[in-house]
Amino acid sequence: MRLDINRNETLPVYMQIANRIKEQILSGILPAGFVLPPERKMADDHAVSRTTVIRAYEELKALGLVASHRGKGTVVTERKVPESHGNDQKVFPLSWYPLFDKKIANVSDTVSELMHAGNHNDVISLAAGIGDPNLYPISTLQQIQRESPLESDQLNLSPVEGLYSLRESISRLMTGRNLSVSAKEVMILAGSMQGIDFAARALLSPGDAVIVEEPTFLQAIQCFRAAGAKIIGIPIDREGIRLDVLEAQLARYKPKFIYTIPAYHNPTGVVMSIERRKGLLDLAYRYQVPILEDDPYGDISFAQERLPPLKALDPYGYVIYLSTFSKVLFPGLRIGWTIAPEPVMRKFALLKQIADLHVNTPGQFLVDQFLRKGYYEAHLRRTSLDYQKKRDVMAKALTQAKGLIHFEIPDGGFYLWCRIPYQISQKELLALCSDQGVIYTPGNVFYPQESDGEHWLRLNFTYESMDRLERGLSIFINAVKKLNKQSSQTDLETGSRPIV
Ligand SMILES: Cc1ncc(COP(=O)(O)O)c(C=O)c1O
Questions:
Q1: How far apart are CA 500 and CA 485, in angstroms?
Q2: Which candidate among 53, 57, 148, 393 keeps its CA 20 to 30 Å from the CA of 119?
Q3: Same-domain status, 188 and 223
Q4: What is the C-alpha separation between 467 and 299, in angstroms, rounded?
Q5: Are residue 234 and residue 275 in the same domain, yes or no?
Q6: pLDDT tens-place string over residues 188-235
Q7: Gap from CA of 111 to ligand 1 centroid (Å)
Q8: Which residue, among 136, 173, 187, 145, has the nearest Cα to 335 in the 3D structure?
Q9: Cβ of 298 less than 6 Å from ligand 1
């Protein structure tokens, strides 16, 4: 047993030992009947005196959490409901961990960890999933506020499906995306993430299978895992999801739905070809499996041609479409939308009522004004140009890493998906970069099995200003070169050779 003891803490060491063990007993990590290490061993293991351990164990006995048994040692006791002693009753701290739903307990919180790491001002984040905050159209927003100040209506409740006038504006926006829908077919959500969550809540029961591209958006994996689903990953190539592999898995698992990001896929940047889109729909029809189409990046395009979303190619009502303003406008407003077949819309409206009633009204009002006054297109053009320049800078810098880093150049979106030499340890690379103030996203978090993707990583080119981006890239590339050199030296010294 290894306990974390801090000798600089003011709390005496025996109390620290008692507290650490208490936490483990109450959280269920140490079950009833578990025998604590003998006092002498515990003392040696933690470089403390035996008296300190005896005092810690006495403390636990006084709480009724352990008992001494001759010949057996100090044993964790069965916890019984204590009798009530009125005001004198001893109240044990509540052990939360055993109470959590098992599905949630097993989901790792990689996003919070990465966001936490990126929250320091001095850290250069190539791990972000948002645009450049310096490009947020703040002055336009202020102008809107001057021209159309918020009134009590915009601070009131809105319909569950969202403000009708915003739904109208989005239906017009969708025409530019080759999809013709009425305002009634649009429902406003708290970001497209809420649509992924609602699809999981509406369609998945524990044990159900769901198909995702492999790799895919990390939070979608977390969401489906939290629903208790079996997540089946299908590899993607330059044209999108591999239909040959998909067909076999559709037959085998009979999944509840297929989750896909056809335009500037996160994390790979791949755009699904028109043939693949049609082929995917064909398979969906044949196996009667719905498609959850997530389209947060489609607008951020550096290409001439824009392919129609799957939703626009689907006359039979198999596709649930999601999109968001998080990537082009303001991620903090939390405004996204869905366009879905009628029965799905009804269930989503019910789930919206249960979750949070509606998206914040002032935010909906501001975005609606932004669209109505025609600011969106100009803003999109400006940001896309800026992101394209940054993409070029990133691609050029990585190319100079002399064949060490492999990647395809995406025609839009936010990311470059990179492969690093197999002999470089991702853990060491992450540590070396973050020691120098640079973070990125390791590839494994985008795979349903986190053991995959070890030699891949995702770099974001949109978030940082140009000079910080260049600085971050230089640190990253030097770290790759350094670790590669070290490992080839080790290979030479040990005579080991790569096994292909
Ligand atoms: C593929 C994908 N879907 C959804 C989202 C979340 O978007 P929103 O902020 O609208 O919830 C992201 C954000 O990174 C994403 O990459």
A1: 19
A2: 393
A3: yes
A4: 25
A5: yes
A6: 999 999 999 999 999 999 999 999 999 999 999 999 999 999 999 999
A7: 12
A8: 187
A9: no
